[in-house]
């Protein structure tokens, strides 16, 4: 599937918002963001600069993100949940933002709750090749 440039940008921005929400940036979160940013075609110098200044960047607008189609939106929510759970401590603000973004994209509440339960009850660490994005862009 070809992902529009706007959706690629929104995907990365959304992951950065999730990572920033708890005011901490764990190494596991950086690794996930780097892997997905690279797969989306972003230059390493760009995403490294963004990661370096992420917590102090007050210019990232944190409104829920709207994607161009439901498949991309679900992939994003799935990866956003993986990111949120990657440091083994999900904050209420991270979860609230992901739920709002899910609603903004008309994702079924049942689907979202199943994904939340999957990650909440999983002590498995995912490899970088396990991300939902990879299944839609190949």
What does this structure look like?
Helix content is 64%, strand content 0%. It has 138 residues and is mainly α. It has one domain: Orthogonal Bundle (TerB-like). The longest helix is centred in the first third of the chain and has 17 residues, at 5-21. The protein is globular. The mean pLDDT is 91.
* Tally of structural domains: 1
Question: Roughly how much helix do the residues carry, as a percent range?
Answer: 55-70%
Helix-strand string: HHHHHHH
- Any idea what the radius of gyration is? 14 Å
Spans of at least 5 consecutive residues whose pLDDT stays below 50 are none
Largest sheet: none
The geometry reads as globular
**Proportion of residues in β-strands:** under 5%
The CATH class label is Mainly Alpha
Number of extended strands: 0
Span of the ends, CA to CA: 8 Å
Brief overview:
64% of the residues lie in helices and 0% in strands.
Overview features:
TerB-like, mainly alpha, 138 residues
List the helices and strands and how they pair.
Layout: H1 5-21, H2 27-40, H3 44-53, H4 70-85, H5 92-104, H6 109-120, H7 132-137
Helix pairs in contact: 1-2, 1-4, 1-5, 2-3, 4-5, 4-6
């Amino acid at each position: 599937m070809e992902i529009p440039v706007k959706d690629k940008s929104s995907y990365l921005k959304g992951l950065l918002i999730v990572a920033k929400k708890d005011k901490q940036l764990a190494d596991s979160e950086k690794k996930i963001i780097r892997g997905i940013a690279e797969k989306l075609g972003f230059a390493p110098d760009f995403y490294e600069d963004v990661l370096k200044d992420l917590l102090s960047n007050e210019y990232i607008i944190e409104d829920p993100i709207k994607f161009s189609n439901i498949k991309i939106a679900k992939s994003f929510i799935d990866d956003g949940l993986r990111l949120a759970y990657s440091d083994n401590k999900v904050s209420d603000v991270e979860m609230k933002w992901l739920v709002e973004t899910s609603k903004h994209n008309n994702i079924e509440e049942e689907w979202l709750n199943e994904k939340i339960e999957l990650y909440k009850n999983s002590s498995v660490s995912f490899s970088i090749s396990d991300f939902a994005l990879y299944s839609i862009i190949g």
